[in-house]
Amino acid sequence: MSDVALLPQVTAFLGRRQGHFIHGEAQEGQGAAFSVTNPATGDTLLTLKGADEAQAHAAMQAAQAAFAPWRDMPTLQRGALLLKLADALAEEREALAQLESLCSGKTIQLARMLEIDQSVAFLRYFAGWAGKINGETLDVSLPSFAGEKYTAFTRRQPVGVVVGIVPWNFSIMIAVWKLAAALVCGCTVVLKPSEYTPLTLLRVAELATACGFPPGVINVVNGSGALLGPLLIGHPACAKVSFTGSVATGNAVNRLATEQGKRVTLELGGKNAALFLDDLSPEEMVNGILEAGYLNQGQICAAAECFWLPEQKMEAVLALLSERLAAMPIGSPLDEATVVGPLANRAQFDKVLGLIEQARAEGDEIVCGGQAQGGKGFFVQPTAIRVASVDSTLMREETFGPVGSFIAYQDAEQALATINDSPYGLAASVWSHNLSHALRISERLEAGIVWINMHTFLDPAVPFGGVKGSGIGREFGSAFIDDYTELKSVMVRY
Ligand code: NDP
What we know:
The protein is an alpha/beta fold and 494 residues long. The protein has helices at 8-15, 53-72, 75-91, 93-104, 108-127, 173-185, 200-211, 225-233, 247-259, 282-293, 314-326, 346-361, 412-420, 435-444, 479-484; strands spanning 19-22, 25-28, 33-37, 44-49, 137-138, 150-158, 161-165, 188-192, 218-220, 238-244, 263-267, 272-276, 304-310, 365-368, 383-386, 403-409, 424-425, 427-431, 449-452, 467-468, 471-472, 485-493.
């Protein structure tokens, strides 16, 4: 097999000087230079300059200036623009997917189906909220002394400028979650992509401008999060921060935002578990494990990393899983036949290999994989590890890689208690033909989202977010409205 041919517009985009998108225009950076690396080859794709303080300020000012006209635009017009952007992304599907695949190592098939198709679906879903974000009328019980009457109503008003900080694993889709929800509520946005994947959002912002979004409604600034985070969050125009990323950075963002009195939503990582009940066959369990743990080389925040299997099925499951993992085609992410691409960057590659080494040192058993896949890129074999005990590092620390940790249980109730004994709680799944049993377990699993007989599927209508150390707030569904609007009460005497 061979790579898909790069479209001319992708080559042209990479040949342009890239930087930021501020007030409806592409701009070169004035700050420190950094390179974007193709994780499949380790080669530099291009070098760009990050935003300096003045550019961060300019982006916030642009968003602030655009806010009032955007808020006051008829709501359905805002919804129509989101629909136009969805259509533009659908038309640009292949070019965006190729660009994303080059920067992040995501396979071209996943880039098309998840990054782009899902972004289109989320944009259309949020566009559908236009005209439906309502307050309520209230029954006021103040006493009347001279025939006067009272009424009251509430309205939902956009909070203002939203700073959206996004990670590298789904650089378009996660940003679209934030911008679509914010924009339909009447907020404007400044987005800060990861330094590893700064390019695709610039193209999305260009497309938005071509669709008719007014200048300043969507701004993108690139560069170091440690530098830009405080500048954007601390800017007086910032009304809300919506952050997706690691627990450590999320906690720092939370401290900063809270000190500054800014609203904050955090979608963080964790250590997600999948619990397989005894009634399933080994083959059914393996199908579930592959879905839950290995998509996008495991670089999905909601992916399962700890797999709990009934003791008597463990050997059969690991034998079959090893066969299936070893047969997965590893290679160039631009090859349509590839199932396993590289990890997205050198730091992630080193981290995952380091955790595998640590597992070896702690006496965990590497059942299959466990090595880098040679060559120049950041490839790691899909790996299954039977952990020595619940105290193994791999049962607690997020790998964010193609590494499943497997542990046997005798008693499902005991397994459930141990799964819940975690500082995190983003996602979990329970697998069984016995829906009654699975539903009862789902009630007690401590996670923001619990799947039954499925894992990792996200739908714009279903709220998503973590409990405990995995986050604050919810995205999607109707939950986003509270996040991006303030409730205003109006009382009237008449
Ligand atoms: P990081 O937390 O390292 O980075 C996330 C973003 O924060 C990047 O844009 C980064 O910029 C920026 N950043 C870094 N330092 C600061 C700072 N001091 N202030 C403000 N922003 C800052 O996460 P990764 O990009 O490594 O993403 C992987 C992590 O994200 C995993 O732990 C995963 O679980 C989590 N994640 C959670 C999801 C969820 O919905 N719960 C979804 C996807 C990922 P830069 O890198 O340019 O410095």
